[in-house]
Amino acid sequence: MPKSLFRLYPPPYEEVSLKGLYLRELLNQRGSTERPFVYANFLTSLDGRIALEDAKGEPYLPKSLTTPDDFRLFLELQCQADCLITHGGYLRALSRGRLGNILQIGVHPLGADLLGWRIRQGLSPQPAVVIASASLDFPMPESIRKSGQSCYIATGEGADPVRVDFWRKQGYEVIFAGQGRMVEGGLLTSHLGRLGYRTIYLVAGPHMLDTMVRESRLSLLFQTITHQLMGGEAFSSLVPGPELGSFGHLRMVSLYYDPVAPTGAGQWFAQFECSGHESAGWR
């Protein structure tokens, strides 16, 4: 029997199907090359943890924080993008087996139907991948080459020229999108638009979310909030920087309640529109 959720907002309250919930958003139709549509998705506990840190200071995702329902919706968001932005830290964790591969469409059983959906929408079989990195020190997953995905490496103007030259010799285009070593969201978004990408999905962690919000480039934030208090003295949260002020003001677009989860706690699936996005100037 198909899994159901309960829509709490906007009214009316009603029971809806989990499968296809975010596909109905048709995010792939919202952007343009002049104004790319950027969206992100995060999973948090009630006390705001997105990850904990082990004794070595390495972040990890507690198993109790993840659910198949959340992952299905993650995959629905992923399959609507023509470009994914990830980061070097994820690729290092992937190579050590600490995280699973989320760079290709249709490879996970929970999303086996999504490649067909994507092709019916007129999208390429797989999205492009952008790897944001200050150090340029990460392993390149073999799955990117095997899937035929376009792949770019984004860094700042102050990046190590030896590492830049290394990646160029491997055949990758290096994008300079920042004045120091860090990638800036505004510069990267504009560059990707010039490359022809219209819909951009952030799977790049809190630092990329922070710069996209501060530079008014984020269009939508999807957030799964599990009904548990995680605790932990060392942890990661959604935004790591100083106060955001009005840039952090969001407007809720939708809220769904999933009362049944494998951990015994429920969860909310929320969608927020970034208030500064519409009025922002573009470079």
Characterize the structure shown.
- By secondary structure, the protein is an alpha/beta fold.
- Helices cover 21% and strands 26% of the residues.
- The chain has seven helices and 14 strands.
- The strands form two sheets. It has an eleven-stranded mixed sheet, with helices on both faces. A three-stranded antiparallel sheet has the order 5-4-12, with no helix packed on it.
- α5 (161-169) links the parallel β8 (151-155) and β9.
- The protein is globular, with a radius of gyration of 18 Å.
- The termini are far apart.
Q: Low-confidence segments, ≥5 residues, pLDDT <50?
A: 278-283
Instruction: Please tell me how large the radius of gyration is.
Output: 18 Å
- CATH architecture group name: 3-Layer(aba) Sandwich
Strand content: 25-35%
Helix/strand order, N-terminal first: EEEEEHEHHEHEHEHEHEEEE
SSE-based structural type: alpha/beta
Q: Please list the strands of the largest sheet in the order they lie side by side.
A: 2-1-13-14-11-3-10-6-7-8-9
Q: Average the pLDDT over all residues and give the rounded result.
A: 90
CATH homologous superfamily descriptor: Dihydrofolate Reductase, subunit A
Strand elements, count: 14
Major beta sheet summary: 11 strands, mixed
Total number of distinct structural domains:
1
- The number of helices is 7
Euclidean distance between termini CA atoms = 49 Å
Q: What do we call the CATH topology? A: Dihydrofolate Reductase, subunit A
CATH class: Alpha Beta
Helix content: 10-25%
Note the overall shape.
globular
